[in-house]
Amino acid sequence: MPGPLLTLSYALHLLATVVLVGGLFVLSVLWLPAASRSLSAQDQASMLRSILRRFQPLAWLSMAVLGATGLMQMAADPNYQGFLQLGTRWSAAMLAKHAAFAVMVVLAGVQTWGVTPALEREAMRRAATGERGEPASTSAQTRLLRLNFWLGLVILGLTTLAQTA
Question: What separation in angstroms does the CA of 37 have from each of 32, 46, 120, 128, 144?
Answer without folding.
Answer: 9, 15, 23, 27, 20
